[in-house]
Design brief:
This protein is an alpha+beta fold and 493 residues long. The protein has 16 helices and 18 strands. The strands form 4 sheets. It has an 8-stranded mixed beta sheet with strand order 6-10-11-18-17-16-15-14, with helices on both faces. Strands 1-2-3-5-4 form a 5-stranded mixed barrel. A 3-stranded antiparallel beta sheet has the order 7-9-8, with no helix packed on it. A hairpin with a 4-residue loop joins strand 8 and strand 9 (219-223). Helix 8 crosses helix 10, helix 9 (228-236) packs parallel to helix 15 and helix 12 (334-343) runs parallel beside helix 13. Residues 6-61 form a coiled coil. Mg(2+) 2 binds at residue 408. Keywords: Aminoacyl-tRNA synthetase, ATP-binding, Coiled coil, Cytoplasm, Ligase, Magnesium, Metal-binding, Nucleotide-binding, Protein biosynthesis. This is Lysine--tRNA ligase.
Length: 493
């Protein structure tokens, strides 16, 4: 921002503070106690036939003022939208009209008036009295240029919400999506629960954790990377269907689809498998689209996405063959997989296993091709330490991920409930961690103990709510659907 702009901004702020001082000298309240509205802005137009020539009380922020001698028009914005005000000296008195003219854009006011239509047919409110509720000490962004700087928009979300109504609508839709998700699951008999956000052991997913410290216990704790292991303990304890909607924290890279703290819905159902989870996933997402947006077909970045069940189901091996020509079902050794990957230009280590290489090829060459909703099934065991293995081919597990527009939105398993197998996989993860892999999982002896008491056959599902909302609101970055995304601290001016 140039020095001239900063200087102008400071001048404008100084003017507003001078007005504040004058208000105090005149014994005028600049920060009122309360003003109860009778309606919202959108009600005035929506219910005009009922409200015409009737009195209403509104509160909101002045977004525009157009003065024409002894009468003014103003735009008042509240949570619901905007309405036009008509303020005339003859209606409110000369002194109050003079006071109104000294108000600034951004000031919060309460008004009383009657609903009418102007000669041009615009529904408006003829103001009979008003009060200043809060003096705004900072000017809003200039009307015709608005707030474009994304760094400012995300850091000062309050300002973004004031001047960009479509942003507010995105978060209204977000709230509706989460509400409908709860309703869908509760109607299917799922119980919403809460599990710890601070864990003594980082587990339930492959990710680098954030570390904090508990002073009284003098011990390090990890902000949770997933609630999975606690939710499965509840299945062991006898709950049959549980879900949790809450934050996870992962200390890893940031991008248009990654934020260090993010919201997920995770659920577990006894006597279910990953086929049941596929059916539940596609029905849930389709229900959300229909209930919140009114359609199963949504536009995302000028591409129509059809959430209508049934979504395509294809194994990872089949998907890699379809999009790269490599048939991993023909490879019998790690070395063959290494050479195959290198043959299409993917650099992999000779120390990598068959399953790790298959997953790498899939991520590099297949993911971005999956535009319409698709279930990728049967993941390698190396990247699925909590999923039940396929007995007919133990290199793979009963696991799927759901992809839309090249992005994973859901992850699900037929859950591993064999405690001895789980212990062996934790030991392999521990060895990887000791070898320097900071994302490998830790040994969780209490979870093994829980499995030893017996966990029924169980299906588990996790859905990334932020990514799903990106798709349903046509948002290009995850920061557009998180009210306060993680940012670097502001540099002190």
């Amino acid at each position: 921002m140039s020095e001239n702009v900063l200087e102008d901004m400071n001048d404008l702020m100084l003017q507003r503070r001078e007005k504040l001082n004058q208000l105090r000298e005149d014994k005028e309240k600049a920060f009122a106690d309360k003003y109860l509205p009778s309606h919202h802005a959108k009600d005035v137009e929506a219910d005009f036939a009922e409200l015409e020539e009737k009195e209403v009380k509104l509160t909101g922020r002045l977004m525009a003022i157009r003065t024409h001698g002894k009468a003014s028009f103003a735009d008042l914005a509240d949570m619901s939208g905007q309405v036009q005000l008509y303020v005339k000296q003859n209606n409110i008195g000369e002194d109050r009209y003079q006071f109104f003219q000294e108000l600034d854009l951004g000031d919060l006011v309460g008004i009383t008036g009657t609903v009418f239509k102007t000669n041009r047919g615009q529904v408006s409110v003829r103001v009979s009295s008003f009060e200043l509720l809060t003096k705004s000490l900072r000017p809003l962004p200039e009307k015709f240029h608005g707030l474009k700087d994304k760094d400012i928009r995300y850091r000062q979300r309050y300002l973004d919400l004031i001047v960009n109504p479509d942003v507010k609508e995105t978060f209204v839709i977000r709230s509706k999506i989460i509400r409908e998700m709860r309703k869908f699951l509760e109607e299917k008999g799922f119980l919403e629960v809460e599990t710890p956000m601070m864990h003594p052991i980082a587990g339930g997913a492959t990710a680098r954790p954030f570390i904090t410290h508990h002073n009284t216990l003098d011990m390090d704790l990890y902000l949770r990377i997933a609630p999975e292991l606690y939710l499965k303990r509840l299945i062991v304890g006898g709950f049959e269907k549980v879900f949790e909607i809450n934050r996870n924290f992962r200390n890893e890279g940031m991008s248009y689809k990654h934020n260090p703290e993010f919201t997920t819905m995770e659920l577990y159902q006894a006597q279910a498998d990953y086929h049941d989870m596929m059916e539940l996933t596609e029905n849930l997402v389709n229900d959300l689209a229909e209930k919140v947006l009114g359609t199963s077909k949504v536009e995302y970045e000028e591409t129509e996405i059809d959430f209508t069940p049934a979504w395509e189901r294809i194994t990872m091996v089949e998907a890699v063959k379809k999009y790269t020509g490599l048939d991993f079902s023909e490879f019998e050794s790690d070395a063959e997989a290494v050479e195959a990957a290198k043959s299409i230009g993917i650099e992999v280590s000779s120390k990598m296993t068959y399953g790790e290489i298959l997953n790498e090829v899939f991520e590099e060459r297949v993911e971005d091709k999956l535009i319409q909703p698709t279930f990728i099934m049967d993941y390698p065991i190396e990247v699925s330490p909590l999923a039940k293995k396929i007995e007919a081919d133990p290199r793979f597990t009963y696991r799927f991920e759901a992809f839309v527009y090249g992005r994973e939105i859901a992850n699900a398993f037929s859950e591993l409930n064999d405690p001895e197998d789980q212990r062996e996989r934790f030991e392999k993860q521990t060895a990887m961690r000791e070898a320097g892999d900071e994302e490998a999982q830790m040994m969780d002896y209490d979870f093994i103990r829980a499995l030893e008491y017996g966990m029924p056959p169980t299906g588990g599902l996790g859905i990334g709510i932020d990514r799903l909302i990106m798709l349903l609101t046509d948002s290009s970055t995850i920061r557009d659907v998180i009210l306060f995304p993680t940012m670097r601290p502001e540099r002190n001016e």
